[in-house]
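TICKET: design request
STATUS: open
ATTACHED STRUCTURE:
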Protein backbone atom coordinates (compact mmCIF):
# COMPACT_ATOMS: atom_id res chain seq x y z
CA UNK A 1 0.00 0.00 0.00
CA UNK A 2 1.21 3.53 -0.64
CA UNK A 3 0.15 6.65 1.17
CA UNK A 4 0.50 9.65 -1.12
CA UNK A 5 0.93 12.80 0.96
CA UNK A 6 -0.41 16.15 -0.19
CA UNK A 7 2.20 18.43 -1.76
CA UNK A 8 1.67 20.76 1.20
CA UNK A 9 2.03 18.05 3.86
CA UNK A 10 4.16 19.12 6.80
CA UNK A 11 6.96 17.15 8.43
CA UNK A 12 4.73 16.53 11.47
CA UNK A 13 1.97 15.12 9.28
CA UNK A 14 4.43 12.82 7.50
CA UNK A 15 5.90 11.68 10.81
CA UNK A 16 2.42 11.13 12.20
CA UNK A 17 1.54 8.70 9.41
CA UNK A 18 4.91 6.94 9.71
CA UNK A 19 4.41 6.54 13.46
CA UNK A 20 0.88 5.17 13.07
CA UNK A 21 2.01 2.61 10.49
CA UNK A 22 4.88 1.47 12.70
CA UNK A 23 2.63 1.29 15.75
CA UNK A 24 0.54 -1.26 13.85
CA UNK A 25 3.65 -3.41 13.47
CA UNK A 26 3.94 -2.65 9.75
CA UNK A 27 6.94 -1.41 7.76
CA UNK A 28 6.92 2.25 6.71
CA UNK A 29 9.30 3.31 3.93
CA UNK A 30 9.61 6.98 3.15
CA UNK A 31 10.24 8.19 -0.39
CA UNK A 32 10.68 11.93 -0.65
CA UNK A 33 10.48 13.18 -4.21
CA UNK A 34 10.95 16.72 -5.38
CA UNK A 35 7.22 17.30 -5.47
CA UNK A 36 5.66 14.65 -3.36
CA UNK A 37 6.30 12.39 -0.43
CA UNK A 38 5.11 8.82 -0.57
CA UNK A 39 5.01 6.42 2.35
CA UNK A 40 5.20 2.78 1.36
CA UNK A 41 3.47 0.45 3.78
CA UNK A 42 4.46 -3.20 3.83
CA UNK A 43 3.37 -6.06 6.01
CA UNK A 44 1.20 -9.07 5.86
CA UNK A 45 -1.65 -9.04 6.28
CA UNK A 46 -2.47 -5.38 5.90
CA UNK A 47 -5.56 -4.64 8.04
CA UNK A 48 -8.61 -4.35 5.75
CA UNK A 49 -9.61 -1.02 7.33
CA UNK A 50 -6.15 0.52 6.98
CA UNK A 51 -6.95 2.45 3.79
CA UNK A 52 -9.87 4.21 5.44
CA UNK A 53 -7.92 4.90 8.60
CA UNK A 54 -4.90 6.43 6.90
CA UNK A 55 -6.95 8.39 4.38
CA UNK A 56 -8.38 10.59 7.15
CA UNK A 57 -4.96 11.48 8.60
CA UNK A 58 -4.17 15.12 7.99
CA UNK A 59 -1.81 15.70 5.09
CA UNK A 60 -2.81 12.50 3.30
CA UNK A 61 -4.01 12.91 -0.27
CA UNK A 62 -4.86 9.29 -1.06
CA UNK A 63 -4.09 5.71 -0.20
CA UNK A 64 -3.52 3.13 -2.93
CA UNK A 65 -3.23 -0.63 -2.58
CA UNK A 66 -0.40 -2.08 -4.66
CA UNK A 67 -1.17 -5.51 -5.97
CA UNK A 68 2.28 -6.25 -7.38
CA UNK A 69 4.30 -8.68 -5.27
CA UNK A 70 7.39 -6.52 -5.40
CA UNK A 71 6.87 -3.23 -3.66
CA UNK A 72 9.96 -1.38 -2.44
CA UNK A 73 11.77 -2.14 -5.69
CA UNK A 74 8.87 -0.95 -7.86
CA UNK A 75 8.08 2.48 -9.23
CA UNK A 76 4.84 2.84 -7.22
CA UNK A 77 6.70 3.08 -3.95
CA UNK A 78 9.54 5.16 -5.32
CA UNK A 79 8.73 7.21 -8.42
CA UNK A 80 12.28 8.56 -8.83
CA UNK A 81 15.14 6.54 -10.20
CA UNK A 82 17.52 5.43 -7.46
CA UNK A 83 20.93 7.07 -7.45
CA UNK A 84 23.63 5.69 -5.22
CA UNK A 85 26.74 7.58 -4.19
CA UNK A 86 29.80 5.50 -3.43
CA UNK A 87 32.59 7.80 -2.35
CA UNK A 88 32.91 10.12 -5.41
CA UNK A 89 31.05 7.87 -7.82
CA UNK A 90 27.35 8.29 -8.57
CA UNK A 91 25.60 5.15 -9.79
CA UNK A 92 22.32 5.48 -11.65
CA UNK A 93 22.81 9.07 -12.79
CA UNK A 94 23.35 10.38 -16.32
CA UNK A 95 26.79 8.83 -16.59
CA UNK A 96 27.35 5.10 -16.94
CA UNK A 97 29.71 3.49 -14.46
CA UNK A 98 32.33 0.90 -15.31
CA UNK A 99 33.43 -1.52 -12.61
CA UNK A 100 36.50 -3.54 -13.57
CA UNK A 101 39.11 -5.76 -12.05
CA UNK A 102 40.16 -9.35 -11.69
CA UNK A 103 37.78 -12.19 -10.99
CA UNK A 104 39.82 -13.09 -7.89
CA UNK A 105 42.26 -11.14 -5.80
CA UNK A 106 45.39 -13.24 -6.22
CA UNK A 107 48.17 -11.00 -4.90
CA UNK A 108 48.80 -7.38 -4.03
CA UNK A 109 50.85 -6.84 -7.14
CA UNK A 110 48.19 -8.32 -9.45
CA UNK A 111 45.38 -6.33 -7.84
CA UNK A 112 47.12 -2.96 -7.59
CA UNK A 113 48.46 -3.28 -11.12
CA UNK A 114 44.98 -4.06 -12.41
CA UNK A 115 43.45 -1.20 -10.44
CA UNK A 116 45.92 1.25 -11.95
CA UNK A 117 45.39 -0.04 -15.48
CA UNK A 118 41.59 -0.04 -15.41
CA UNK A 119 41.49 3.34 -13.73
CA UNK A 120 43.78 4.83 -16.35
CA UNK A 121 41.41 3.50 -19.00
CA UNK A 122 38.39 5.11 -17.30
CA UNK A 123 36.92 2.53 -14.91
CA UNK A 124 35.67 4.10 -11.72
CA UNK A 125 35.17 1.15 -9.32
CA UNK A 126 37.50 -1.79 -8.68
CA UNK A 127 36.15 -5.34 -8.42
CA UNK A 128 37.92 -8.42 -7.08
CA UNK A 129 36.79 -11.53 -5.26
CA UNK A 130 38.30 -12.46 -1.90
CA UNK A 131 35.68 -15.12 -1.13
CA UNK A 132 35.00 -17.01 -4.33
CA UNK A 133 32.00 -19.22 -5.07
CA UNK A 134 33.48 -21.96 -7.24
CA UNK A 135 31.55 -24.68 -8.98
CA UNK A 136 34.19 -27.21 -7.90
CA UNK A 137 35.42 -27.29 -4.29
CA UNK A 138 38.91 -28.10 -5.60
CA UNK A 139 39.32 -24.79 -7.46
CA UNK A 140 40.94 -21.65 -6.02
CA UNK A 141 38.46 -20.21 -3.54
CA UNK A 142 40.04 -16.87 -2.81
CA UNK A 143 42.43 -15.35 -0.30
CA UNK A 144 39.72 -14.51 2.24
CA UNK A 145 40.60 -11.72 4.66
CA UNK A 146 44.01 -11.19 3.08
CA UNK A 147 42.18 -10.54 -0.19
CA UNK A 148 40.12 -7.83 1.50
CA UNK A 149 43.28 -6.17 2.82
CA UNK A 150 44.75 -6.18 -0.67
CA UNK A 151 41.63 -4.55 -2.09
CA UNK A 152 41.89 -1.85 0.57
CA UNK A 153 45.50 -1.26 -0.44
CA UNK A 154 44.45 -0.93 -4.09
CA UNK A 155 41.79 1.60 -3.06
CA UNK A 156 44.37 3.58 -1.14
CA UNK A 157 46.75 3.54 -4.10
CA UNK A 158 44.18 4.58 -6.70
CA UNK A 159 41.26 6.20 -4.87
CA UNK A 160 38.85 3.72 -6.50
CA UNK A 161 35.95 2.43 -4.40
CA UNK A 162 35.86 -1.35 -4.19
CA UNK A 163 33.27 -4.07 -4.58
CA UNK A 164 33.72 -7.64 -3.44
CA UNK A 165 31.50 -10.65 -2.93
CA UNK A 166 30.20 -11.85 0.40
CA UNK A 167 29.02 -15.44 0.45
CA UNK A 168 27.82 -16.06 3.96
CA UNK A 169 26.36 -14.07 6.87
CA UNK A 170 29.34 -14.90 9.08
CA UNK A 171 31.69 -13.04 6.68
CA UNK A 172 29.59 -9.87 6.48
CA UNK A 173 31.31 -8.14 9.36
CA UNK A 174 34.79 -8.72 7.93
CA UNK A 175 33.77 -7.73 4.41
CA UNK A 176 31.97 -4.62 5.71
CA UNK A 177 35.18 -3.49 7.37
CA UNK A 178 36.79 -3.12 3.94
CA UNK A 179 34.33 -2.96 1.08
CA UNK A 180 32.37 -0.04 -0.34
CA UNK A 181 29.79 -2.25 -2.05
CA UNK A 182 28.76 -5.81 -1.21
CA UNK A 183 28.39 -8.15 -4.15
CA UNK A 184 25.89 -10.98 -3.83
CA UNK A 185 26.73 -13.58 -6.44
CA UNK A 186 24.41 -15.37 -8.82
CA UNK A 187 24.52 -18.55 -6.78
CA UNK A 188 23.44 -16.75 -3.63
CA UNK A 189 20.81 -14.55 -5.23
CA UNK A 190 18.00 -16.36 -3.41
CA UNK A 191 19.84 -16.94 -0.14
CA UNK A 192 17.26 -14.99 1.78
CA UNK A 193 18.98 -14.94 5.16
CA UNK A 194 22.16 -13.62 3.55
CA UNK A 195 20.13 -10.98 1.71
CA UNK A 196 18.51 -9.85 4.94
CA UNK A 197 21.79 -9.70 6.83
CA UNK A 198 23.48 -7.73 4.10
CA UNK A 199 20.47 -5.43 4.07
CA UNK A 200 21.31 -4.53 7.66
CA UNK A 201 25.02 -3.94 7.03
CA UNK A 202 24.69 -0.30 5.99
CA UNK A 203 26.44 -0.38 2.61
CA UNK A 204 25.21 -0.60 -1.00
CA UNK A 205 24.56 -4.07 -2.36
CA UNK A 206 24.96 -5.32 -5.92
CA UNK A 207 22.67 -8.27 -6.48
CA UNK A 208 23.55 -10.48 -9.41
CA UNK A 209 20.81 -12.32 -11.26
CA UNK A 210 20.64 -16.01 -10.42
CA UNK A 211 21.10 -18.54 -13.19
CA UNK A 212 17.40 -19.26 -13.48
CA UNK A 213 15.75 -16.25 -11.87
CA UNK A 214 12.63 -14.74 -13.34
CA UNK A 215 12.78 -10.95 -13.29
CA UNK A 216 10.03 -10.81 -10.69
CA UNK A 217 11.94 -13.29 -8.50
CA UNK A 218 15.04 -11.15 -8.88
CA UNK A 219 13.18 -8.05 -7.72
CA UNK A 220 11.73 -10.01 -4.81
CA UNK A 221 15.27 -11.00 -3.83
CA UNK A 222 16.24 -7.30 -3.92
CA UNK A 223 13.14 -6.66 -1.85
CA UNK A 224 14.65 -8.76 0.97
CA UNK A 225 17.61 -6.35 1.13
CA UNK A 226 15.47 -3.23 0.92
CA UNK A 227 12.96 -4.45 3.49
CA UNK A 228 15.78 -4.28 6.04
CA UNK A 229 16.00 -0.53 5.46
CA UNK A 230 18.74 -0.50 2.83
CA UNK A 231 17.60 1.47 -0.24
CA UNK A 232 20.94 1.15 -2.08
CA UNK A 233 20.57 -1.92 -4.26
CA UNK A 234 22.08 -2.32 -7.72
CA UNK A 235 20.99 -5.17 -9.99
CA UNK A 236 23.46 -6.91 -12.27
CA UNK A 237 22.44 -9.05 -15.25
CA UNK A 238 25.18 -11.62 -15.80
CA UNK A 239 23.55 -14.11 -18.11
CA UNK A 240 21.18 -16.96 -17.39
CA UNK A 241 21.29 -20.68 -18.11
CA UNK A 242 19.63 -21.71 -21.36
CA UNK A 243 20.04 -24.66 -23.72
CA UNK A 244 22.82 -22.82 -25.55
CA UNK A 245 26.38 -23.93 -24.82
CA UNK A 246 28.33 -21.67 -27.19
CA UNK A 247 28.50 -19.06 -24.44
CA UNK A 248 28.98 -19.69 -20.72
CA UNK A 249 25.57 -18.15 -20.05
CA UNK A 250 23.04 -16.38 -22.25
CA UNK A 251 23.10 -12.64 -21.74
CA UNK A 252 19.47 -11.63 -21.34
CA UNK A 253 19.91 -8.13 -22.62
CA UNK A 254 16.16 -7.64 -22.65
CA UNK A 255 16.19 -7.78 -18.86
CA UNK A 256 17.66 -4.27 -18.85
CA UNK A 257 14.69 -2.41 -20.38
CA UNK A 258 12.18 -4.78 -18.79
CA UNK A 259 13.63 -4.23 -15.30
CA UNK A 260 13.75 -0.50 -15.95
CA UNK A 261 10.02 -0.62 -16.63
CA UNK A 262 9.42 -2.45 -13.36
CA UNK A 263 11.95 -0.90 -11.00
CA UNK A 264 13.74 2.30 -10.06
CA UNK A 265 16.92 0.43 -9.13
CA UNK A 266 20.07 0.87 -11.24
CA UNK A 267 20.86 -2.13 -13.42
CA UNK A 268 24.30 -3.20 -14.63
CA UNK A 269 25.43 -5.77 -17.16
CA UNK A 270 28.33 -8.16 -16.56
CA UNK A 271 29.39 -9.26 -20.05
CA UNK A 272 32.28 -11.36 -18.70
CA UNK A 273 30.29 -14.05 -16.89
CA UNK A 274 27.71 -14.06 -19.66
CA UNK A 275 30.26 -14.59 -22.44
CA UNK A 276 32.75 -16.87 -20.73
CA UNK A 277 35.08 -15.98 -23.59
CA UNK A 278 37.21 -12.88 -23.84
CA UNK A 279 36.54 -12.33 -27.55
CA UNK A 280 32.80 -11.95 -26.94
CA UNK A 281 33.06 -9.55 -24.01
CA UNK A 282 33.26 -6.28 -26.02
CA UNK A 283 30.13 -7.01 -28.08
CA UNK A 284 28.10 -7.90 -24.99
CA UNK A 285 29.41 -4.89 -23.07
CA UNK A 286 28.34 -2.56 -25.88
CA UNK A 287 24.98 -4.32 -26.14
CA UNK A 288 24.40 -3.76 -22.42
CA UNK A 289 25.04 -0.04 -22.69
CA UNK A 290 22.97 0.19 -25.88
CA UNK A 291 20.08 -1.46 -24.02
CA UNK A 292 20.26 1.25 -21.38
CA UNK A 293 22.28 -0.32 -18.58
CA UNK A 294 23.52 2.06 -15.89
CA UNK A 295 26.91 0.43 -15.92
CA UNK A 296 29.08 -2.58 -16.62
CA UNK A 297 31.13 -4.96 -14.55
CA UNK A 298 34.05 -6.35 -16.54
CA UNK A 299 36.83 -8.76 -15.59
CA UNK A 300 40.39 -7.77 -16.48
CA UNK A 301 43.70 -9.36 -15.51
CA UNK A 302 47.40 -8.58 -16.07
CA UNK A 303 47.92 -12.04 -17.52
CA UNK A 304 44.60 -13.77 -18.15
CA UNK A 305 46.21 -17.04 -19.21
CA UNK A 306 47.59 -17.42 -15.71
CA UNK A 307 44.55 -16.22 -13.80
CA UNK A 308 43.46 -18.43 -10.92
CA UNK A 309 39.82 -18.01 -11.94
CA UNK A 310 37.91 -16.96 -15.06
CA UNK A 311 41.01 -16.29 -17.15
CA UNK A 312 39.25 -17.26 -20.37
CA UNK A 313 36.77 -14.41 -20.01
CA UNK A 314 39.16 -11.80 -18.55
CA UNK A 315 40.34 -8.97 -20.78
CA UNK A 316 43.97 -7.95 -21.01
CA UNK A 317 44.70 -4.34 -20.05
CA UNK A 318 45.07 -3.46 -23.73
CA UNK A 319 41.74 -5.04 -24.62
CA UNK A 320 40.10 -3.20 -21.77
CA UNK A 321 41.65 0.11 -22.80
CA UNK A 322 40.52 -0.44 -26.40
CA UNK A 323 36.96 -1.17 -25.28
CA UNK A 324 36.45 1.92 -23.13
CA UNK A 325 36.20 4.53 -25.94
CA UNK A 326 33.72 2.26 -27.70
CA UNK A 327 31.64 2.13 -24.52
CA UNK A 328 31.81 5.93 -24.36
CA UNK A 329 30.61 6.19 -27.96
CA UNK A 330 27.63 3.89 -27.40
CA UNK A 331 26.80 5.63 -24.11
CA UNK A 332 26.68 8.91 -25.97
CA UNK A 333 24.51 7.42 -28.70
CA UNK A 334 21.90 6.49 -26.09
CA UNK A 335 22.03 9.85 -24.32
CA UNK A 336 24.41 8.85 -21.54
CA UNK A 337 28.09 9.58 -20.97
CA UNK A 338 31.16 7.88 -19.60
CA UNK A 339 33.31 9.99 -17.30
CA UNK A 340 36.68 10.62 -18.96
CA UNK A 341 39.60 8.87 -17.28
CA UNK A 342 40.97 12.22 -16.15
CA UNK A 343 37.70 13.03 -14.34
CA UNK A 344 37.85 9.94 -12.25
CA UNK A 345 38.71 10.39 -8.63
CA UNK A 346 41.94 11.69 -7.35
CA UNK A 347 43.69 9.66 -4.69
CA UNK A 348 42.14 10.78 -1.39
CA UNK A 349 44.41 12.06 1.35
C1 LIG B 1 32.11 -13.00 -10.11
O1 LIG B 1 31.68 -11.85 -10.25
O2 LIG B 1 33.33 -13.29 -10.15
C2 LIG B 1 31.12 -14.10 -9.98
C3 LIG B 1 31.41 -15.22 -9.33
O3 LIG B 1 29.98 -13.82 -10.62
P1 LIG B 1 28.57 -14.61 -10.65
O4 LIG B 1 28.10 -14.66 -9.23
O5 LIG B 1 27.74 -13.76 -11.54
O6 LIG B 1 28.84 -15.97 -11.22
MN1 LIG C 1 34.55 -14.36 -12.17
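STATUS: resolved
RESOLUTION: sequence designed for all positions
ATTACHED SEQUENCE:
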Amino acid sequence: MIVVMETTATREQINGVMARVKALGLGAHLSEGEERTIIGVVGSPLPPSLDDELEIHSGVERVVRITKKYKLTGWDFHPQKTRISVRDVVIGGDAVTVIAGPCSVESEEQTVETARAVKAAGASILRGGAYKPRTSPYDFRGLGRRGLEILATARKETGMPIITEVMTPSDIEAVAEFTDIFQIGARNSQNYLLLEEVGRAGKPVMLKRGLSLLLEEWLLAAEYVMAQGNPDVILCERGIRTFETATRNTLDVSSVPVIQGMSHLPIFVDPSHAAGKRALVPALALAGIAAGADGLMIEAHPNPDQALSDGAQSLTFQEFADLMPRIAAVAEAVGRSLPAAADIMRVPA
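CLOSING REMARK: The chain has a mean pLDDT of 96. The chain has two domains: 2-64, 84-344.
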